[in-house]
């Protein structure tokens, strides 16, 4: 991965984070994807605490593909609904809304999260 690709994503991530922030009523759903896994967490930015987290590394099928990403989204939404979180703000962290990131978001929507 070239340095330009990394700095480009970080620049986009910074721009996104300047526009959105998670509150207690509507926390932020943040996504991170690596070559091996995809991670998602719901964060309350006012207190700086992670409320709910899920990842493909914790699933039995630890591959980071589109089907697994969808399952991670559903798992995260189920945990969030148990804690009483129904609405979130989606933070794609500079990644394109395509492929694994899109699949995670669709899985979370299917399971009941609103964003």
TrEMBL record:
- Biological processes annotated in GO: translation
Q: Which UniProt keywords apply?
A: Ribonucleoprotein, Ribosomal protein, RNA-binding, rRNA-binding
Report the CDD domains cross-referenced here: Ribosomal_L18_L5e
Query: Which Gene Ontology terms of cellular component type are present?
Result: cytosolic large ribosomal subunit
Is 4Fe-4S among the key words of this record? no
Q: Which GO terms describe its molecular function?
A: 5S rRNA binding; structural constituent of ribosome
Pfam annotation, one family: Ribosomal_L18p
Origin superkingdom: Bacteria
Protein family per UniProt: Belongs to the universal ribosomal protein uL18 family.
Assembly notes: Part of the 50S ribosomal subunit; part of the 5S rRNA/L5/L18/L25 subcomplex. Contacts the 5S and 23S rRNAs.
Task: Give the function comment from the record.
Answer: This is one of the proteins that bind and probably mediate the attachment of the 5S RNA into the large ribosomal subunit, where it forms part of the central protuberance.
Q: What is this protein called?
A: Large ribosomal subunit protein uL18
Q: Gene symbol? A: rplR
